[in-house]
Amino acid sequence: MFDFIRKHTKWTMALLFLLIVPSFVLVGMNSSRQSGGNGGVVAKVDGKEITQPEWDRTHLKEVDRLRASMPTLDAKLLDSPQARYATLERMVQERVIAVAAEKFKLATSDQRLARELHQSPEIASLRRPDGALDMERYRQLLGNQGLSPEMFEANLRADLSNRQVLGAIAASGFSANSVSDLALNAYFEKREIQLARFNAADYAAKLSPVDADLEQFYKSNEKLFQAPEQASIEYVLLDMDSVKKGITVNESDLKTYYEQNVQRLSGAEERRASHILITSPKAATAADREKAKAKAQELLVLVNKSPETFADVARKNSQDPGSAPNGGDLDFFARGAMVKQFEDAVFAMKKGDTSDVVESDFGFHIIRLTDIRAPKQRSFDEMKPELEADLKKQQALKKFSETAEAFSNGVYEQSDSLKPVADRLKLEVKAAGKVTRQPAPGTTGVLANPKFLNALFSPDAIEKKRNTEAIEVGSSQLASGRIVQYTPARTLPLAEVKAAVRVRWLAQRGAEEARKDGAAKLVSWKAAPATASLPAAVLISRIQTQQLPVPIVDAALRADTSALPTFSGVDLGAQGYAIVKVIKVASRDAPLEAAAKQERSQYGQWWTSAESSAYYNGLKERFKAEILVPKPGTGKTNIEERLTQ
Questions:
Q1: Is the model's pLDDT at 6 over the cut of 70?
Q2: How far apart are CA 505 and CA 634, in angstroms?
Q3: Architecture of the CATH domain 268-373
Q4: Which of 506, 515, 413, 431 is nearest to 467 (CA)?
Q5: How far apart are CA 70 and CA 82, in angstroms?
Q6: How far is CA 488 from CA 227, 231, 454, 492, 495, in A?
Q7: For residue 339, what pLDDT band results from cuts at 50, 70 and 90?
């Protein structure tokens, strides 16, 4: 029966459409609510759900934003399980704070909104000389981001309200100097110690296990000696590069594109200018601003009388530390590199001109235009490869969604093979062996993508060896795979892993013997301190750890020093055991006043951060925020983590 359905897909889909759609009309809304739309529920805040598709979309936006701001950033870091989970945590935090702002009625007034808009550098650059906002440019700026002025202002109003939730805690946080000094002195305190190490490796070297020991250890720890499930697979990848391969751009289109874009593609005009700056911050008083402007006017008169002295006047009087030593020279720059007032003046001047006094947020400038560098217009033949790549990219962006739909349908409709869809779309069927559910270290690309691997090792894909659905494995990347041969997880025979069993047995027994001997010595030395045989003393602190393991340093600094000397035992796990003898407590060296001030400030920030974190955790509890997917590396949801802490 299922073979009939698969061979007559279109007829079957039409029949099912007629039968099922009426049911969806009746129960669709309820079903949609229960399933969370197009995917499972991954988190809840105040009874409202965050679904898998919402999470995916938000993470994709975050990845695109980071790639745009940091083009050299490794893409693998952006799509790791840890990065995706961090996005979900941020989504939950935003929801919690938004709910708190709503419940606590933290509104933003029109005056506060207007003040924030007025302080925005991007919006300030849109003001006309008379101070009025250029609404056309304002709408254009927001339209490029897919926003209307009303949407932008509503978002900003909500953001300002949300900031009040944690802002009040951050603004009220402080720590008295006496409290800071007490905590910091304790934290940086030094202790003189003697240390005895009982290394597991030393004890393991004296052991000689017999076959019976190894066999018993193997039987008790079979899970340690399992080969994971693995598969030989085939997969196809649809991405922008594969779509571009099927696109051919004709000569006439290239020439038309060249004629329309030659100015833009050739580059922007650059100008070289020098300036004399008299600084006066925007926040300065009106009197100070007028004083700075008057000084600039005096210097303008001076350079207008003797234009050739501009560089000397700049060296002696300009308050721009970067350009003053060079006679005010700013080198070449294009539009967009300088603040608007400065840029407008420079690009309105002729070579050799000296401007009037130009006011900006930094102060008052006198500008001299020293050179103009027009972009060299390149020929069609010079630009042809670049034009072809640009046009192919544009056409591929338009064609990708159409090709993606054909890809998704193809891997489903002929799910017993990837060859038909690969032939139709001119894709390569790739093969990979020994693929595991958890990617091996160093694995990259499709075979390291968790969503792809989860689909590949789903029960249906394993049992029936069918194609997976089209999985989004990256920005504009879809992949589908199928298992060709599957090997389930199995316990390896003792003969095959005997060497590994021996290594583990020695490590475990060596650590046990080290702990046993160390614990006995600890009891003995506490009873008779004079019998302890210990090396020379060393001075340690949290800053000067003497390269000792963290557990040893912690034990030394946490030891009760009311009666010295004192002994502490430290279990080092697989490394063995240690005994720490604390002989003396030494106060930290008194820091210089500047360093002490900086330390107190840092401590205050830590304290405020801790208070804000505690307050946010309280809000999470109050509004029943919960993440329903396991945290990478723990296998637990945030609720389970709380219960086990």
A1: no
A2: 26
A3: Roll (3.10)
A4: 413
A5: 19
A6: 9, 8, 15, 12, 20
A7: confident
